[in-house]
C-alpha cells in the first residue's frame, strides 16, 4: 500500500511542478486551453506506459486527440473507439488520423500464440490472433519472435486502418474535406517513429463498421 501511495504522491507532485513551470513560461497557457480544443490529429495508440504520445511527438496539450487501448486495436464493434472517432472526425474536424503500433508490444507478442490470458483479453486480442493465422506463412519465415511480433504489430496497424476507413464519419470526411489516415510504428529502443506504407489499397480486414452495429 505504501508503494502505491508513493506512486500517487509522485504524480500529484509532478503535476504541481508541471503547472508551476508551465504558468511561469506562459501565464496564459491554461487560460487558452480552457477556451476549447482544436487538435488536427486523432492519435490511436497502445496503452503501453512507454509510449506517451505527447512526449514522443514533442507536442503540447491540445495538439493531439487521443484514444489508447491494448495493442492499438480498432474493432468494428467497439463503441469506445467508435465514439472517439466520431467525435474527433465529425465534431472536432481533425485533419488526420494516426494509428500507432510499436516494437516490443505485449499485445502483439501475446497474439503470436493462444495462451489463455483471461476472458476479456482473449476476446480483445482475437482479431490480432486471427490476423496471425492468416499470415502464418509470412510470420513463420521470420527469424525470431521479436521480428514476428514487430511484423504482426505492423499488420495490426494496417488492419485497424482498414476498419477505420469503413467508419461512416471517416468515409464522409475523406470525401468531403480530405481527411487522411496513416499508420506509424514506434521503435521503443530507438525512440523513433516510422511511417508505414499507405494502406488505402489493401484488402479490408474482418469486421467492418456497419450502421446496424451501432
UniProtKB/TrEMBL annotation:
SMART domains: Pro_CA. GO terms for biological process: carbon utilization; cellular response to carbon dioxide; cellular response to oxidative stress. Binds 1 zinc ion per subunit. Keywords: Lyase, Metal-binding, Zinc. PROSITE patterns: PROK_CO2_ANHYDRASE_2. One of its GO terms (molecular function) is zinc ion binding. Its cofactor is Zn(2+). Pfam families: Pro_CA. Signal peptide: none annotated. It is an enzyme of class 4 (lyase). Its EC number is 4.2.1.1. Zn(2+) binds at residues 46, 48, 102, 105. GO terms for cellular component: cytoplasm. It catalyses: hydrogencarbonate + H(+) = CO2 + H2O. SUPFAM superfamilies: beta-carbonic anhydrase, cab (SSF53056). Reversible hydration of carbon dioxide. Belongs to the beta-class carbonic anhydrase family. This is Carbonic anhydrase. It comes from Sporormia fimetaria CBS 119925.
Amino acid at each position: 500500500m505504501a508503494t502505491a501511495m508513493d506512486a500517487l504522491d509522485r504524480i500529484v507532485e509532478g503535476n504541481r511542478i508541471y503547472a508551476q513551470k508551465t504558468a511561469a513560461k506562459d501565464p496564459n497557457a491554461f487560460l487558452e486551453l480552457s477556451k476549447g480544443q482544436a487538435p488536427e490529429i486523432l492519435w490511436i495508440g497502445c496503452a503501453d506506459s512507454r509510449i506517451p504520445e505527447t512526449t514522443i511527438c514533442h507536442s503540447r496539450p491540445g495538439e493531439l486527440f487521443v484514444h489508447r487501448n491494448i495493442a492499438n486495436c480498432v474493432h468494428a464493434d467497439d463503441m469506445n473507439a467508435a465514439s472517439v472517432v466520431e467525435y474527433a472526425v465529425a465534431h472536432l474536424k481533425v485533419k488526420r488520423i494516426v494509428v500507432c503500433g510499436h516494437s516490443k508490444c505485449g499485445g502483439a507478442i501475446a497474439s503470436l500464440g493462444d495462451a489463455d490470458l483471461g476472458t476479456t483479453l482473449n476476446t480483445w486480442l482475437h482479431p490480432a490472433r486471427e490476423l496471425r493465422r492468416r499470415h502464418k506463412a509470412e510470420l513463420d519465415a521470420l527469424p525470431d519472435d521479436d521480428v514476428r511480433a514487430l511484423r504482426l504489430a505492423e499488420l495490426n496497424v494496417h488492419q485497424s486502418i482498414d476498419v477505420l476507413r469503413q467508419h461512416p464519419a471517416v468515409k464522409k470526411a475523406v470525401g468531403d474535406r480530405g481527411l487522411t489516415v496513416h499508420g506509424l510504428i514506434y521503435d521503443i529502443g530507438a525512440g523513433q517513429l516510422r511511417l508505414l506504407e499507405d494502406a488505402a489499397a489493401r484488402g479490408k480486414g474482418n469486421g467492418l463498421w456497419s450502421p446496424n452495429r451501432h
